[in-house]
């Protein structure tokens, strides 16, 4: 079973790209703390379509989110001929945990999460 759940803070701004006339993808890095250590793992997250638009509109670097999704691996050859590999999380759901701008309430007061990926 390929299921991933992560909670962390955005380490980059969300980058939104049009794949074609009907599809969009958003990418960002998520910093996930390692328990008991003063370190973090940085995980590339991708979201698609309506969820991508929503993330690009409302999320900024430093915002806290929960991500549910699946792992996807890819490999390619770089311009120097070296084989490269990467693993990313394709998000099925991104839940916003930081309060909206101007709200001092707790994260539990945030009434919305993004639409599920289609």
Q: How does the helix and strand content classify structurally?
A: mainly beta
Strand adjacency order, main sheet: 1-3-4-6-5
β-strand number: 6
**Considering DSSP H and I runs of 4 or more, what fraction of the residues is helical?**
under 10%
Strand content: over 45%
CATH topology: OB fold (Dihydrolipoamide Acetyltransferase, E2P)
Q: How is the main sheet built?
A: 5 strands, mixed, barrel
> How many domains, in number, for the residues?
1
Output mean pLDDT.
88
In the CATH scheme, the class would be Mainly Beta
Q: What is the CATH architecture annotation? A: Beta Barrel
| Uncertain stretches of 5 or more adjacent residues | 106-118
Commentary on this structure:
The chain has a five-stranded mixed barrel. The longest helix has 10 residues, at 49-58. Strand 2 (15-18) and strand 3 (24-33) form a beta hairpin. The chain has one helix and six strands; from the N terminus they run ββββαββ. The model is unreliable at 106-118 (pLDDT under 50). The chain has 118 residues and is mainly beta.
Brief sketch in words of this structure:
8% of the residues lie in helices and 49% in strands. The chain is mainly beta and 118 residues long. It has one domain: OB fold (Dihydrolipoamide Acetyltransferase, E2P) (Beta Barrel), CATH 2.40.50.140.
Fold topology:
Blueprint: E1 4-10, E2 15-18, E3 24-33, E4 40-48, H1 49-58, E5 64-77, E6 83-96
Parallel strand pairs: 4-6
Antiparallel strand pairs: 1-3, 1-5, 2-3, 3-4, 5-6
């Amino acid at each position: 079973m390929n299921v991933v759940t992560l909670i962390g803070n955005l380490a980059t701004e969300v980058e939104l790209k049009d794949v074609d006339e009907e599809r969009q993808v958003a990418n960002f890095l998520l910093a996930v703390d390692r328990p008991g250590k003063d370190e973090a793992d940085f995980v590339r997250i991708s979201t698609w379509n309506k969820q991508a638009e929503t993330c690009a509109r409302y999320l900024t670097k430093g915002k806290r989110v929960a991500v549910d999704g699946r792992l996807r691996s890819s490999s390619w050859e770089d311009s120097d001929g070296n084989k490269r590999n990467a693993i990313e999380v394709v998000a099925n759901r991104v839940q916003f945990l930081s309060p909206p701008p101007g709200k001092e309430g707790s994260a539990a007061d945030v009434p919305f999460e993004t639409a599920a990926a289609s």
